[in-house]
């Protein structure tokens, strides 16, 4: 969706900010804090049309009144204006709200050190572990970039094609922006309501094997809940790594397994209680939130229902664009159902891709079995209900479709929850995987 043209007031704001940044560069301010401020880009992006981070209450529960990104931003505004005393006051307020926020402690230390000598980098302390300082610098950049992001009000991730009425919320993780977005299902249309800073895998994304410390990309669902007391019972002292609790997701999913991906234990979880948050790349592959944020989103998790879409650089579209694609894919599913019910076996089989597989069956095996089975039928009835659909991150032309299937025929009846992966080939949708959900 295109953004509105900038107003003259916004353009004037841009000129003032550019001028302020130029003047700022001329001043002898602490190099560390200057670098931190510039890493975030424009000091006042929200004054030029962006909307600052808003963590709104979910399900009637209050979120923090002022979020860390906004508090850090206020500190940098004081630094920009060469008011280091006021900046120190601001950062002390951050620490009053978040006493174990390590990044805020680092900035405070820099401000105190700037009184006696110039600094050349964030955390300019030769005795401090350099890897930890690098992590905190990365967190500073990620958090301040989040503060400047425009919130996706009026837009939706292209992946959320159709939610079930009972799926009250959907989580969409953007690893490139260290952000988890929460969408509320309002009469079938997802609406943005909040977003949260997250940490992901130490070694990046696109998990492939056990122990690679990468975060998977794909369409998943929350499969369980591990509150703190249960984690303590299972893992003992090690449970402290997960903070307030954890929500496992179903990695590896059917597509992951087909691609040869392995590993397990990918969770949404909290952080150790001795810290407020972790750097943007710090987990063993899980998605980690602050304990406060985990508890907030946890109030809306529905085990077995809440989808978790993990993407790198989320693609945003208008609700109308999502609707068009949803209708196109739904028609393909309905035609597949109709051809199966009509016992038009050869026509039914045209809905399957040449690359289809299900378990150990390829398309040839599948086709042979279906011809044999359907040859013994005099009638078939197939009902599809509770259909949900998601596009797959990183694969522009693949969708995951899940539904309740009620099958009845002249000699067999059964009900199941089924999942299909559809891929677009030659302008048409074909099934590449089918099995029980």
SSE layout and pairings?
Blueprint: H1 8-26, H2 31-39, H3 68-80, H4 84-97, H5 102-113, H6 130-148, E1 156-157, E2 160-162, E3 169-174, E4 179-186, E5 189-197, E6 200-201, E7 218-221, E8 226-227, H7 228-235, E9 245-248, H8 254-258, E10 267-269, E11 281-283, E12 287-288, H9 291-298, E13 307-311, E14 316-317, H10 319-341, H11 345-349, E15 357-358, E16 361-362, H12 363-375, E17 380-391, E18 398-409, E19 413-425, E20 428-436
Parallel strand pairs: 3-13, 6-11, 10-12
Antiparallel strand pairs: 1-14, 2-17, 3-4, 4-5, 7-13, 8-9, 9-10, 15-16, 17-18, 18-19, 19-20
Protein architecture, described:
With 437 residues, the chain is α+β, with helices and mostly antiparallel strands. The protein folds into 3 domains: 8-148, no CATH class; 156-317, Beta Barrel (L,D-transpeptidase catalytic domain-like), CATH 2.40.440.10; 319-436, Nuclear Transport Factor 2, Chain: A. The protein is 34% helix and 24% strand. Strand 19 (413-425) and strand 20 form a beta hairpin.
């Amino acid at each position: 969706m295109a953004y509105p043209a900038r107003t003259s007031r916004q353009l004037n704001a841009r000129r003032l900010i550019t001028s302020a940044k130029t003047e700022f560069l001329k001043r002898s301010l602490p190099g560390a804090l200057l670098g931190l401020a510039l890493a975030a880009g424009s000091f006042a992006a929200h004054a030029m049309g962006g909307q600052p981070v808003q963590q709104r209450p979910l399900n009637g529960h209050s979120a923090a009144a002022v979020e860390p990104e906004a508090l850090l931003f206020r500190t940098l505004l004081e630094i920009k204006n060469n008011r280091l005393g006021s900046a120190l006051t601001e950062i002390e307020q951050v620490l009053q709200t978040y006493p174990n926020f390590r990044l805020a402690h680092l900035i405070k230390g820099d401000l105190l050190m700037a009184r006696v000598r110039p600094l050349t980098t964030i955390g300019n302390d030769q005795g401090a572990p350099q890897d930890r300082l690098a992590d905190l610098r990365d967190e500073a950049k990620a958090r301040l970039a989040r503060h400047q992001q425009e919130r996706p009000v009026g837009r939706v991730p292209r992946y959320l094609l159709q939610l079930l009425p009972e799926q009250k919320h959907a989580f969409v993780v953007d690893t490139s922006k260290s952000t988890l977005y929460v969408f509320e299902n309002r009469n079938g249309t997802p609406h943005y309501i909040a977003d949260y800073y997250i940490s992901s895998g130490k070694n990046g994304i696109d998990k492939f094997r056990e122990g690679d410390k990468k975060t998977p990309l794909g369409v998943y669902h929350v499969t369980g809940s591990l509150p703190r007391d249960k984690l303590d019972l299972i893992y003992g002292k090690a449970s402290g790594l997960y903070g307030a609790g954890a929500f496992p997701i179903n990695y590896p999913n059917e597509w992951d397994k087909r691609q040869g991906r392995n590993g397990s234990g990918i969770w949404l979880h909290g952080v150790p209680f001795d810290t407020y948050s972790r750097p943007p790349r710090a987990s063993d592959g899980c998605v980690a939130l602050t304990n406060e944020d985990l508890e907030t989103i946890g109030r809306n998790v529905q085990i077995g229902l809440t989808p978790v879409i993990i993407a790198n650089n989320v693609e945003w579209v208008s609700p109308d664009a999502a609707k068009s694609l949803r209708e196109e894919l739904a028609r393909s599913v309905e035609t597949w159902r109709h051809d199966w019910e009509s016992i038009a076996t050869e026509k039914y089989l045209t809905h399957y891709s040449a690359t289809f597989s299900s378990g150990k069956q390829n398309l040839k095996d599948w086709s042979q079995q279906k011809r044999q089975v359907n040859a013994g039928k005099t009638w078939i009835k197939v009902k599809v209900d509770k259909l949900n659909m998601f596009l797959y991150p990183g694969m522009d032309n693949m969708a995951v479709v899940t539904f309740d299937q009620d099958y009845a025929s002249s000699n067999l009846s059964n009900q199941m929850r089924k999942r299909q992966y559809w891929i677009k080939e030659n302008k048409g949708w074909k099934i590449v995987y089918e099995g029980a959900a």
